[in-house]
């Protein structure tokens, strides 16, 4: 980018205060750090909410748009140049690298999941409080959820037409409504783009997998004397993902860092040794790849792929004791170390889900005059993802009859000699194949609106009015998964009239085919019976309808400047409906049954699949709200500087939970010290319960021996996991204050900020177990649980509805540090050299379940969670008119598995408790990643570029079972290259 062009695109809006350096330089992924108003924008690219030639930018930190206002809430801004320079196939990845974004999901997260529906879902989490507490907007407007939790999928957003992304690090509910507890991420599109631009990119890992390619094209023009503006884009991206490895300890394509590290519970609390120990190469003693007899006289006999018996090699020098408990001397409870690891299944999890994105976007705007515009936007997109949750389908604790004709004669003879008729058996079911999960999300979003300005009583006012309708269809299909009841019937085989058949005559009459699970050679007929071609499915439809209007202006000129205000109202309606297959949801709940034949072997009420037992459900709620925000200048002098106070209030009525109020009070003070600013804000923020929490599709299971304290007996209970329509909004208190030094005259181009934050969230929605619900009611410590069960009908009507309550709380505090320095023409060279860094330090992150007998847990620094103590991002870049180079570092600090563990050595351990269990090691190394990129301007409009992520191929710590894909890079070195053009 030329210096002339950079200057034009980085015009600052804040007068003399805090003039920051031009921000859209080089390949830095961070375009602005200290000042939320330092937003690059060309007049021709701004919406006509003011007269042409005097355009202003709406910064997400506030609804106030008057010239000269500076928001008190720290806001990080990434411009289009920075987003493109990071060369990611999804801008979500670039944004998620910001240190304040902790716990965001993506294609590396939820890959182990079969039923969540969140595989491949890209959603942001600020301050580690979760995606459901981070509000994500498109052009300042809400987006229909891509999951029943209400969070949108960033993969469905238009990306090539992005002008910038604002990340508000702090509560913003008073300005933008529910969910903005951790903050706001706002995607701003270039509404008046003119010309044609495109991008073609490809990439691959150093292991030869996750092949990716992307094609993007966007164009815009105007008609009718520049009054009719038309822009549009189409984007296609495909990432192949990284599938699971083989059984055992081999990850995909030669990755060698998996060690089957396992936290083993010794089950002893007070012998002076730690209760938990962490060991590599852990081998389960309850199953093998093709089957293992796990207890009794024949314990230790395993089977190979052909069904031949052999003596299993236990690790640790383990010796089976041939007792009913399945004890193996010399091993730990449940595990040996080393030996035959071929049956371990954890390497089968996809390291990264595949993802295919197709996104189209269009906007038509017509300027009624040079101050007012009406517009229509259409965003239609589709995302397909695929993952493998794990290898095989573990089935420990099976009972196999010795007379089963599939049992080899050698083993049958051993049964006779031992005087037993059956044995206990466990298998990974490798012969049945691996489960595959496919998700598809389709979004249809339409917005009709108008924005602009008018004059009233001699004052200029701005308005923004729009209506939005969005629909998202989410389909989940699971393939290659067994039906539990059919499996149980098929493995119980007998010989009848010289043929091997299923024992149960009802099962035989309904197509049961005998299954040989002693080895790896089941018949095709048995496979088709146990693992049918049709699998579990879920079909979800979500809709969102919004009507919004807001005004802003400066009605009064006061002693220190104009009083600026904004006010407005909004109506929103959220709805969802989900339908599932009859084998999971139950035939009574699924009229017609589709292609799923009725089978009396299966449970009519559902829950027949090994996993993926989806249910039917639905719900809706409406929201009415109004807000008012004001900015009052209080100081405006050379001697005292410039200061203003900002306040906002929002009153919201939910059809389900009543009325709640959010507010904020803050201010900024530009001191009479060159470039120095103080800022702070405190706010009351809210998050309303989402559709899933209130109206979750019920999941029903049977608890056959549930202890009833009211009648002092055990009983059969039907447990249903359901939503709770009586939930109340979560209430948060956010406080942020800091200091910023921006572009001082004694060092032009220097920007530094420090902001402390503290967030306390009460009434956090969380669930408790069926047993705890009954016990807490019985003890009268949580009477609100008493209405969730009935244990007075032992004849079959006892039930417990496990549902969420507003019980828990979260408290976190820390600080953000942001800095940048831009050096023009370094050492006399043409171009710009830029240094930038962002860091977040989490002092504490304390969660209190609110349940009796528990203690608050501080998870700051737990690298199994989302909040390491330190996380930073640093960039160094150089650019001129011909080329650019960039180096980027990403780092987070060492941590623990969990902070409540007590680390001790054998012989010195205190008594292990539920709140403070003892463990022999509690260290989880941090990670440092180095990235590098660059570009060459081939012609004025064509640029070739490259990017290498994780240049040193840094692998996660070997304790894989504790690895956290939300923090650690599981992919390894990635090469990307492409060509961009713009005319």
From TrEMBL:
The keyword Lipid biosynthesis does not apply. Residues 434-951 form the TonB-dependent receptor-like beta-barrel domain. It is a multi-pass membrane protein. Keywords: Cell outer membrane, Membrane, Receptor, Signal, TonB box, Transmembrane, Transmembrane beta strand, Transport. Residues 70-184 form the TonB-dependent receptor plug domain. It is found in: Cell outer membrane. Residues 1-34 form the signal peptide. The keyword Membrane applies. InterPro entries: Beta-barrel_TonB, Beta-barrel_TonB_sf, Plug_dom, Plug_dom_sf, TonB-dep_rcpt-like. GO terms for cellular component: cell outer membrane. It comes from the Bacteria. PROSITE patterns: TONB_DEPENDENT_REC_3 (PS52016). Belongs to the TonB-dependent receptor family. This is Outer membrane receptor protein involved in Fe transport.
